[in-house]
Amino acid sequence: MNALLKIRDFSLFCGQNKILDNINMDVFEGEILAVAGESGSGKSMLARSVLRLNDPDEFRLEGKILFEEEDINSLSEKELAKIRGAKIGMIFQEPISYLNPVLKMGRQLTEAYIKHKKVRKNEAALLMEGLLEKLKINNPSAYMKSYPHQLSGGMAQRGAIAIAASCRPRIIIADEPTSSLDVITQASIIKLIRDLARVEGISLIFITHDLQLVSKLADRAVIIEKGRIVEEGCARKVFDSPKSKAASCLIRASVMSNFKESTEHKKTILELRNLSMHYKNGRGNIVRAVDDISMEVLEGETLGILGESGSGKTTLARIVTGIQKPLSGKVLLEGRDIFKLKDYSRHVQMVFQDPFSFLDPQMKIEDIVAEGMDMIARKNRHGRAKEVARCLQKVGLDESLKDRYPHQLSGGQRQRVGIARAVIVNPRIIVCDEPPPILTPSRRCGYWSF
């Protein structure tokens, strides 16, 4: 087998910090290569480096990345544009953060077809509708008329997968593509990506922290820890007989502890009465996102709300947190209507599904975490900094990250910033909109324990 992509003595620096350290790796034609590691290990930075997506003013690199024997790092932007999307496609971890919010999905989905395949808009739309059907999107035409903000995280991710696969590139880099999908859909998406790789001869670089998935999906696996490759080999062998501590930790953490608490003799703290939320989609049809829902939340309990992508879970969460008003019905906090309470956000906080889309890119981490506290109770600078450091430590982040910006953190680190931001005001209720999937298994266990 010929190596389609060769990474030789590659290192990546951010200032004086070494993000990636002397990476040597091959990707062969038609193979599925998994790159696994904990949050912040450097796996996503490696994926972005292949397409030279890291800011050249912020990052410095050494070594070579050879695609079809041509060094990616020596190409001009014009030459690189002919490779991005056409020969190397990428599925990003957080689709909402890079889909254009003011353009309908149809225009964004067909852009690669029109640019690289030189087809007309109508033909591109038909080709894309066929691909969307394979991705289990029931009404492709309506989907293409939607804006990104009208889609759930899972539905937006399907669009991202469609964009990457549209031109049948030689390599697809998938940066945790199922992190925001429901369990039922995850299996079908993984199968689709795997079948594309096998049938079309596409090489797949699969970035993940799930070694169980690696053992079932990949041919080979590379384990990264602190920017260095610590283990490499047959995926099944790495899973069955790990040689590195990093691989062993990922495997152990994939089995979650069984959390269970008694809810006897606990009072009702939140009550939902006959909540409904309907809206019109792109075709003018009524969508019943939430339809006459009633439930109670007891003090100190953990309530799980399950459903497929697009079933209305996020809409319900937005209503409960007061972000969105329902069409009808009430949300009562200890018997009081939440939409009549001025300090409701002090009692109820939300951890969002997509951490990058709700973190202000121009604010430092310290200011993001302290934002809620600043609005509710003014503290002196020393007290504020001390509280931020405490919350960052609670969610497993080093205090030194407080001076960084969101784009300088990994997806898992951004998610933990979102958790710290929610807990710093000591709320009575925390609404979590599917945050753990973006965390690595060990962080996920720690998250639920916390």
Automatic annotation (TrEMBL):
Residues 5-251, 270-450 form the ABC transporter domain. Transmembrane segments: none annotated. It holds the Pfam family ABC_tran. This is Oligopeptide transport ATP-binding protein OppD. SUPFAM superfamilies: P-loop containing nucleoside triphosphate hydrolases. GO terms for molecular function: ATP binding; ATP hydrolysis activity. GO terms for biological process: transmembrane transport. CDD domains: ABC_NikE_OppD_transporters. Belongs to the ABC transporter superfamily. Keywords: ATP-binding, Nucleotide-binding, Transport. PANTHER family: D,D-DIPEPTIDE TRANSPORT ATP-BINDING PROTEIN DDPF-RELATED, TRANSPORT ATP-BINDING PROTEIN. It comes from Acetivibrio straminisolvens JCM 21531. InterPro entries: AAA+_ATPase (IPR003593), ABC_transp_ATP-bind (IPR050319), ABC_transporter-like_ATP-bd (IPR003439), ABC_transporter-like_CS (IPR017871), P-loop_NTPase (IPR027417).
